[in-house]
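Q: Got a minute? One more chain.
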Amino acid sequence: MALANDLRKGMAIRYNGNPAIVLEVQHRTPGNLRAFVQAVIRYINTGKSADVRFSSTEKVDVIEVTRTPLDFSYADNQGFHFMDPETYETITFDAEFVGEAKDYLTENQRVDVLYVEGKAAQIELPPAVTLRVAESPEGVRGDSATNVQKPAVLETGKSIMVPLFIKEGELIKVDTRTGQYLGRA
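A: Always. Here it is, folded:
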């Protein structure tokens, strides 16, 4: 048992008897009220998310999480296929489980899959990934005000805003938490 103040993103807890992954945590202290912890959790069994509030001194049942590194192999109409680098076993996850992580997955990309009570709960990406720009229009000449950006489509199909000097075929770093351009690779 841990205090609600100790909750962090990626932890697994048992809430109302069901295992859940903590997606977001905010510690709030309103002016005239007691402090509380606001959290967004996703139930592992159903996949549904919930917004919950804990008193900052409330006890929370923390469940052990196992992180397994997997390499992304490929995606097809049956799902996203990953390979365990130790056993070379192929594991397939459906598109709903992979979610927004699909925008950052490239061949041989290493990710961590969080397992709670033996069931896959979430894919954890590295903080930044290197992706190739698939298409990007040319920057408009003379459009040189500070921080001017243009749209670019990456090799995974994700569209982001990049600086004018980025051209098709270049490798760039993208933040997986915010989806923003970080720099050239």
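A: The first strand starts at residue 2 and ends at 3.
Q: Perfect, thanks.
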